Amino acid sequence: MAWIRFWNVFKYISGDESHYYKITASLMPMLKRLSQTPMDILLSANDVENPERNIVNSHGLFNSGGVLYISLDGLSDPATARDLSQLITSDIAAEAGSRYNTASDLSTVPGVSIFIDEAHQAVNMQLINLLARGTRGQDRIVHLYADHF
């Protein structure tokens, strides 16, 4: 199975270069924004220069509790704020989905409250799905904030 996955990746990267650029054209500006300084260090889960740094992820926040506050600075850099907030809300939705699908009794796991300021930046399909799915056992509550509606 691993060999098949490797072979598929190899065929993809060794294929027609113009086809690769057509497919990734809309993705590349976002990847460039999120991999520039200081985002490269902030979003890296493998910090070689500072191995003692505490890595925060949504799985840990969901299971042990905690607060994640990120100042997006959406007024001065709306594109990066949008990309980062959508990346985080997608990760939160993936963790919520994993928790929903694997936990047999959600009353035994800590509840989660999700507060999203500048919600207009964070709206994507994953956030909509997170809002649309009922909260089985009231395991999560989502609050959205914006300046104007």
- Estimate the mean pLDDT confidence: 78
Shape: globular
Helix content: 40-55%
Distance between the termini: 49 Å
Low-confidence stretches: none
Measured by DSSP, the beta-strand proportion falls in: 5-15%
The H/E string reads: HHHHHHEHHE
Number of helices: 8
Number-wise, the strands total 2
Give the domain tally. Answer: 2
Report on the structure:
The structure is a single chain. This protein is mostly helical and 149 residues long. The protein has 2 domains: 1-38, no CATH class; 57-149, no CATH class. It is 50% helix and 7% strand. The chain has helices at 2-13, 17-24, 28-34, 39-42, 58-64, 78-102, 119-122, 125-132; strands at residues 112-116, 140-144. A two-stranded parallel ribbon has the order 1-2. α6 crosses α8 (125-132). The longest helix has 25 residues, at 78-102. The N and C termini lie far apart (49 Å). The model has no long low-confidence stretch (mean pLDDT 78).
Give a brief rundown of this model.
The protein has helices at residues 2-13, 17-24, 28-34, 39-42, 58-64, 78-102, 119-122, 125-132; strands at residues 112-116, 140-144. By secondary structure, the chain is mainly alpha-helical.
Annotate the secondary structure layout.
Elements: H1 2-13, H2 17-24, H3 28-34, H4 39-42, H5 58-64, H6 78-102, E1 112-116, H7 119-122, H8 125-132, E2 140-144
Parallel strand pairs: 1-2
Features:
single chain, mainly alpha, 2 domains, two-stranded parallel sheet
